[in-house]
């Protein structure tokens, strides 16, 4: 792995130097992880002129169970506890004679940025913006295989839930049950707070589980994901509880399914983000559901569950091969409930068989 | 409750106006919750000259299951999805003729702060610092009763775990089991990521559970907390697995227990934060464990699990009555493990019986 991390840091160093900065400070934890490997919470990465340094808080802090940072890095621990590694890193950069340092202004707070300036007044701070986030968009096959395993784990956890009795159980308990199963199957943990939505809650994006119990005739929508070696996937399905779905449920399900399929089929290298969004949105629009749709149809996944790109109406940019994204349109009817269907796929060229579906749980409307 | 929220906002408005700002923007979610009640994720609070406004993201966003915001507030939803409520609030403040607005520079990123400036260039932005965090330090009896219930829930979850078979189970599974029990007993969820540390991991603050299994002769240290109506408590205990603890385990346990008791007994209105820390630290120092101790002996709890005050060597300030804090000294011996004992208590005057212990699980060294 060490060469992989070194290559990633070399690309960032080029970006920083092209922007006129001799050093760069990475503070966003997912970005530190991408460039340096697993590191204790709060660790920051300083890219210097010559060598790179991880600055950690006091050694008693938690270490990530999933591994160790890149051995090629110099590791420095804060002398005093309770300090800010970013401030120590700025101090270090100035001490090594750097005149400028690129920082992540979208991650640093105003107060923290001021602390950097005051500890190293001679150091000119520039903004590296989302440079690391941009590097992270296209995944290598190693990263994709982690996502593939994460998706398998989520499929397994969801599949087991479907075999259990659901009526009478609360959203909260079903969510916890799913998270336990994710870990049973080897996840480091859930990729995000598992969402279980019943009846009138169903179909709502990011619904936080309540004490409402599953009832006969409910729509049940579930959204979960596993984290495996830091990589996060997402799957969402909607089911109906009881013997036979109502007509409105079947119609709504078929509509959302059609919208989701349209967006999946539009995934290809070179496709504009907004066109993937439009593919799903116009199916829902044409059926009169233009109001109150979610802001986006999907988003990138990787070391964070919601990363670049955004598949949204105003998004600029085009998909590349090896970009994993979610496709998750939904419709929610206030007071009645709704449907969401959510897959994680990897964009692949037609020659390689088109988009690779990572979350393979059936998308038929199951009556449980 | 509405009067309570109104009174809190009035105090903040006074602080802002004393600082020369006619309006204030609150973005830190715990602060928004304190001043406005439960609100959807991403919601910000604008304190205007006359009336106060909650600015929310698109209505499809998650709503908190635990309640609704203060009805006295005007609620404004972003026109377009995906926007930043803070930017909309700055726009609104300027439109209402405000010339200055106090913001939380310790919470706003540099990028977000710049976006506020560019949407409302005539609006002078000042820093309100940790004003709301300071208001939150002393709790009212309503808040304390929520913490009391949260602590009861955590005690129950921990008590049930102690009755189950532990040997052979992994840290990860025990942590998930505890979190399920928290919800069983009425918690909204865990107050923080439950920490279960076995053998060589035991006694480490903030240890993230791994796949290590509990073994005979291990120290097992557990730290968990419940969230009830938004309020978060914390309890930590260390046990020994098997029939009889080794001598070194008994000695280390007695030492940490003595340190924790010394700090608990030093809790009183007017006591300096650093003196509470020193009470525990000098017990450990005198036994030769000055190296590698955690940065703090305890911290405030409330709407956040780690809030003001910090009970640490360099902390400035004195305790007041009705301030809930943790007391959580620990010793970790690399490669061998260690002990942590953690309680949540409320500072009370001697006349009222002294500190109120919220987490009542026994602190005897139990052999499980």
Structural class of chain A, by secondary structure, is: alpha+beta
Mean pLDDT across all amino acids of chain A:
93
What's the SSE pattern of chain A?
A: HEHEEEHEHEHHHEEEEEEHHEEEEEEE
Multimeric organization:
homodimer
Please give the share of residues in helix of chain A: 25-40%
Q: How many DSSP E strands of chain A?
A: 19
Distance between the termini of chain A: 45 Å
Strand content of the residues of chain A, in percent?
A: 15-25%
Q: Roughly how many Å is the radius of gyration of chain A?
A: 23 Å
What is the overall silhouette of chain A?
elongated
Structure description:
The structure is a homodimer of 368-residue chains. The first copy, chain A, has 368 residues and is an alpha+beta fold. The first copy, chain A, has 9 helices and 19 strands. In chain A, α4 (110-119) links the parallel β5 and β6 (124-127). Chain A is elongated. The model of chain A has no long low-confidence stretch (mean pLDDT 93). At the A-B interface, α4 and α7 of A face α4 and α7 of B.
Features of this protein?
homodimer; 368 residues; alpha+beta; six-stranded mixed β-sheet; three-stranded antiparallel β-sheet; 9 helices; 19 strands; elongated
């Amino acid at each position: 792995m060490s060469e992989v991390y070194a290559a990633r840091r070399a690309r960032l160093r080029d970006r920083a130097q092209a922007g006129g900065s001799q050093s760069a400070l990475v503070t966003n934890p997912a970005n530190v992880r991408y460039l340096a490997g697993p590191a204790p919470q709060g660790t920051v990465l300083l890219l210097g002129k010559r060598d790179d340094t991880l600055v950690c808080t006091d050694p008693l802090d938690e270490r990530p169970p999933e591994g160790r940072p890149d051995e090629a890095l110099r590791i420095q621990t804060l002398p005093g506890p309770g300090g800010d590694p970013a401030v120590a890193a700025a101090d270090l950069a100035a001490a090594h004679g750097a005149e400028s340092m690129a920082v992540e202004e979208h991650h640093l707070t105003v107060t923290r940025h001021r602390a950097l300036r005051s500890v190293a007044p001679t150091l000119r701070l520039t903004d590296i913006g989302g440079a690391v986030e941009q590097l992270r968009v296209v995944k290598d096959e190693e990263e994709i295989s982690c996502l593939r395993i994460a998706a398998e784990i989520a499929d397994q956890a969801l599949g087991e839930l479907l075999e259990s009795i659901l009526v009478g159980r609360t959203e909260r308990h079903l969510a916890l049950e799913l998270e336990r199963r994710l870990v049973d199957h080897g996840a480091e943990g859930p990729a995000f707070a598992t969402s279980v939505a019943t009846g009138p809650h169903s179909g709502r994006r990011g619904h936080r589980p309540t004490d409402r119990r599953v009832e006969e005739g409910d729509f049940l929508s579930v959204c979960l994901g596993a984290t495996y070696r830091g990589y996060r996937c997402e799957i969402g399905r909607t089911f109906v509880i009881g013997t036979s779905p109502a007509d409105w449920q079947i119609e709504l399900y078929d509509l959302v399914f059609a919208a989701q399929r349209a967006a999946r089929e539009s995934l290809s290298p070179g496709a504009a983000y907004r066109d993937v969004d439009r593919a799903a949105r116009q199916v829902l629009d044409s059926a009169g559901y233009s109001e109150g749709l979610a802001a986006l149809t999907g988003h990138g996944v990787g070391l964070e569950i919601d990363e670049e790109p955004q598949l949204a109406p105003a998004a600029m940019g085009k998909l590349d091969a090896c970009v994993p994204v979610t496709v998750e349109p939904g419709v929610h009817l206030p007071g009645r409930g709704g449907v969401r269907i959510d897959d994680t796929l990897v964009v692949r060229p037609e020659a390689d068989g088109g988009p690779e579906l990572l979350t393979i749980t059936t998308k038929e409307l199951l009556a449980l």
